[in-house]
């Protein structure tokens, strides 16, 4: 599989987030697209590892995975500024649509783990 492609997308009221694409955006934009959000204290790499499992081989061939890294949660990320206010889950969920707009993706299947599941659920409720 090709290396991950990194994008930085600025979300309203949340600031910039890193987005990592696993798969071919041009081939899969209108196919099966999965939007993932990890748990707090984890990273998008938990989703990358899951997608790379041998049991996911057939899905991996036909899908695009869009992994959102929550602020300050990327591996090797610098500490957040002292005055940084971490966005509320509602703000993150409401504004994830900006990632899809940036990538010109019209629909996704949302996957979340822990706090990421809460964020994805809020996204789905605001953008059915």
What distinguishing features does this structure have?
alpha/beta; globular; five-stranded mixed sheet
Brief rundown of the structure:
The chain is of the alpha/beta class and 128 residues long.
What does this structure look like?
With 128 residues, the chain is α/β, with parallel strands linked by helices. Helices cover 34% and strands 25% of the residues. It contains six helices and five strands; from the N terminus they run ββαβααβααβα. The chain has helices spanning 25-28, 45-52, 57-62, 89-95, 97-103, 115-126, and strands at residues 5-11, 15-22, 32-37, 63-69, 109-112. A five-stranded mixed β-sheet has the order 1-2-4-3-5, sandwiched between helices. Strand 1 (5-11) and strand 2 (15-22) form a beta hairpin. Helix 4 packs across helix 6. It is globular and about 45 Å long.
Topology:
Elements: E1 5-11, E2 15-22, H1 25-28, E3 32-37, H2 45-52, H3 57-62, E4 63-69, H4 89-95, H5 97-103, E5 109-112, H6 115-126
Parallel strand pairs: 3-4, 3-5
Antiparallel strand pairs: 1-2, 2-4
The percent range for helix content is 25-40%
Shape: globular
Count of helices?
Answer: 6
Task: Describe the main β-sheet briefly.
Answer: 5 strands, mixed
- Beta percentage is 25-35%
Spans of 5+ residues with little confidence (pLDDT < 50)? none
Give the structural class: alpha/beta
H-E string: EEHEHHEHHEH
Through-space gap between termini:
31 Å
* Side-by-side strand order of the widest sheet: 1-2-4-3-5
Would you count the extended β strands for me?
A: 5
